[in-house]
C-alpha cells in the first residue's frame, strides 16, 4: 500500500508541475465551473418557481444535492475521466505493453496515472454550494451525518468507477468504446437530480445498474438525517463486489491480451 501511495503522490506532483506551466487553465476551469453551477441553480429556480416541493424535496435541499453532485463530478473529472478515456488508446497504440511490465497492479496504473488538477475547482465549488444551500435549508450539521454522507459518496464513487472500468475493459475486444463511454457519462448526469424524481424501473436502474443514487441522493439524505442505514451497508457490499468484479474482468482480459506489438 505504501508503494501505491508513493506512486499516486508522484502522479500528483507531475500533474501539478504540468499544470503550473499552463496557469490559465486554472482560471478557465474556474470560469467554466462557476458557469455550470449558475446554469444548474437557474434550472432549479425555474423548476421551483411555482411550487415549494417536488417529490418531497425543497429547492434548497435539491441545491445541497447539486453541490454534492459538483463534488463527485469534480473528483471523477479530475481522476477517473482522463484515465478511462486513455485506456482504449493505450491498448490500440501498444502503450499498455509497457504498463504490464511494471511490478505493480496494472489496473492501479491505468486508473490513476493521469490527473486533471483544474477539475479540482469543481470540488471546491460544490462544497461551497452544499454548505450555503444547507444553511438556507435549515440543515443542522452533525458529525455522524457528515460521516454517513461521506461514506455514501465513497460508495458511489467506487461503484461508478467499477462500472465505468468494466465498460472500458471491453476495449480489448472492441475497436472503440467511445459510444459506451458517452452513454455512461450521459447517464451519470442524472445524478444532479434526486432519484425520487424518477419512477419505476428508471429509479431502480439509477440506484443499482448506474448507481448514481449512492453518489448524490443518499449523501444528501444522510446530511438531513433521512438516509436509510441499510442502504449504506448495501452500498459498501455492492462497492466491494463491484471492485472485485471489475478487477476479475480486467485480469481475464489481460490473460487474453496478445499485445499490440505481437
* Mean pLDDT, all residues: 86
Characterize the biggest β-sheet. none
Number of helices: 11
Rg measurement, Å:
19 Å
Low-confidence stretches: none
User: In what range is the share of β-strand residues?
Assistant: under 5%
Question: Structural class of the helix and strand makeup?
Answer: mainly alpha
Number of strands: 0
CA-based shape: globular
Give the key terms.
262 residues, mainly alpha
Strand and helix layout:
Elements: H1 2-20, H2 24-47, H3 59-93, H4 95-100, H5 106-112, H6 120-136, H7 143-169, H8 178-188, H9 200-209, H10 217-223, H11 229-255
Describe the protein in words.
This protein has 262 residues and is mainly alpha-helical. It has one domain (15-255). Helix content is 73%, strand content 0%. The protein contains eleven helices and no strands. The protein has helices at residues 2-20, 24-47, 59-93, 95-100, 106-112, 120-136, 143-169, 178-188, 200-209, 217-223, 229-255. Helix 3 (59-93) packs parallel to helix 7 (143-169). The protein is globular, with a radius of gyration of 19 Å. The two termini are 33 Å apart.
Question: Can you describe this structure in just a few lines?
Answer:
The chain has 262 residues and is mostly helical. The protein has helices at 2-20, 24-47, 59-93, 95-100, 106-112, 120-136, 143-169, 178-188, 200-209, 217-223, 229-255.
